Amino acid sequence: MTEHLGFGAMLALLLDRRELGVEELADRAGLTAVEVRAVLAGEPPGEGLLRRLATALGFRSVDLFILAGLAVPDDMAPLDAAAGRWVPYVVMDAVHLPAAGRRELLQLIRALPQEERSSRFAPKRLGPLTGGPGDCVIRMLRYRNLDWTGMAKTLAVVTPTYLSAATYGVIGAGRKELTPRLVTDFAALLGIDAVELGALTGVFVGEVPRPPGPEAVDAAALLWEARRLSAAQARYVSELARSMRGDSRDGYLINLPGS
């Protein structure tokens, strides 16, 4: 089983890949070089430092918290866990639309009024958490409001990965190795560079994969933005996306061309 590298080691690999020095990262993040070197040496990062590093590195803060093995603050969590029932269908129907239709849905999601959080987002423990690489990527998807079934449906449509829902639990529990193919496809849906995600999870991707197609890029954006929706809003957007497909709305293509 691939071992968790530790956040300091992961950060070092990321800096090496980007040819980014400690001083430059510290300047970008508004930190001191001493603080950055301490993290690289294995000191656990605090919440404020992680937020600054995420901004400086162009990472979603929630993903960096998960990679660091820290609890995700409430303000980074999806608004409404119940929206997870509809979010996969928002994405799956949207990526069957022309690019203009996908942009329309994305703009709609961003324009919907922000509702108040009515409960704390606490994703169900779908399996024993290991803190390992598989656990990290599955938790990243959970914090995009996808459960195992949502992962199975969305990844099958958007990428070449076609797995049963239960297999995602096995990956999260560390009983199934992350392969370069899995890392590449997870990265596409997460909106993360595949080689960087491979480095962060200890998986050598090898030959640099081709960039995700436009459907996959838009799927990642839709999935991220849908985190701000309530269940009622997610259902509304899902129904709209399905209606926009017109006569072709009865099924889903697997591994969409160009994705």
Verbal overview:
With 259 residues, the chain is mainly alpha-helical. The protein has two domains: 7-71, 434 Repressor (Amino-terminal Domain) (Orthogonal Bundle); 81-248, no CATH class. The chain is built from 14 helices and no strands. It has helices at 7-18, 22-29, 33-40, 47-57, 61-67, 87-94, 99-111, 133-142, 148-158, 165-172, 180-190, 194-201, 214-225, 231-244. Helix 11 packs across helix 12 (194-201). The mean pLDDT is 90.
Compose a concise summary of this entry.
This protein has 259 residues and is mainly alpha-helical. Helices cover 54% and strands 0% of the residues.
Shape: globular
Strands, total number: 0
**Strand coverage percent:** under 5%
Span between N and C termini? 29 Å
Average of the residue pLDDT scores: 90
Round the Cα radius of gyration to an integer and report it: 18 Å
Q: Which terms would index this structure?
A:
259 residues; mainly alpha; 2 domains; globular
List the helices and strands and how they pair.
Elements (H helix, E strand, L loop, with lengths): L6 H12 L3 H8 L3 H8 L6 H11 L3 H7 L19 H8 L4 H13 L21 H10 L5 H11 L6 H8 L7 H11 L3 H8 L12 H12 L5 H14 L15
Helix pairs in contact: 1-12, 2-3, 2-4, 5-8, 6-9, 6-14, 7-13, 7-14, 8-10, 9-10, 11-12
